[in-house]
Amino acid sequence: MIAISMGDPGGVGPEVTLKALSRASVATVCRAVVVGDLVFLRRLAQDLRIPVKLYKVTNFGQIAGNAVYVYDIGRASGKIPLGRPSLAAGRAAGKAVEQAVKLAVSGKVRGIVTAPVSKESFALAGYGLVGHTEILARLTGTQDYAMMLMSGNLRIVFATAHVPHRKAAAGLTRKGLVRKLELTVRYLALYLGVRNARIGVACLNPHCGEGGRLGREELEIIEPALRDARDRGICVEGPFAADSIYRPAIADGLDAIMAMYHDQGMIPLKLKGHGEVVNITLGIPMVRTSPGHGTAFDMAGSGGASARSMVGAVLQCVRIVKRLNHVG
Question: N or C: which end of the chain has fewer CB within 10 A?
């Protein structure tokens, strides 16, 4: 059993959630509980003609595998405008995430999948300009965590994530990079069965800083961190210039790549497999995945959003849970 938080109701999150749960490939492998506004979700399914029947959760022990259940958070989304961020949408999305985490911590569900949210809506609702990764870490009291996105055999872990570019360099530390490399190796083995992983690390600056002339982060932070990681038994390679590390000649020999900032990793991911990217949070005390796309406000309410990435996120969550059951 897994929980799916409905995402920002002003965007496509609820739509792709319901579409994914209407697929036989999803319905046959898990029992899903959507955490969100039951009235809103029923109306959305009817308006977009999504073939799902939604039932209110009253007893987790009686949830069947051939139906879609909703853990109702109440009329949190009654007056939410479609197609743009809003305080009300941020509150609804945040409440759904908080409740999904509670269900996972209590053992009622084995993993959670989070539908897309708007960081601007979260900020308007008082959560700060953060995404799911930061909120999940905050809710679970996790200090060391990382965001890993994957499309096929391309797996990218981020040294920094949702910060302005001008703050990305300031956010890099020698110890922080080593901790994220340790998380990467640990969770590749735990979640995906990749042991003795080879990790490639990208540079921050063009041409790896040109010996310090284009920036000293490689000399003073990244290279020392890689030496520390090797001393701890981690198989890490680089640092490589960011414009070469994703070339097949390099990337195909690596189990994961560490990008220094958000777009450095997201651009190659979306070029490789847009619509099939899955996000996995490393370090938190529960399995969490999500589709690797945003709220797509411009498509909200149109019925045209693709559920491919959400289907992939649900199936990946199930695969990880089953693996943990087998090894643990």
Answer: C
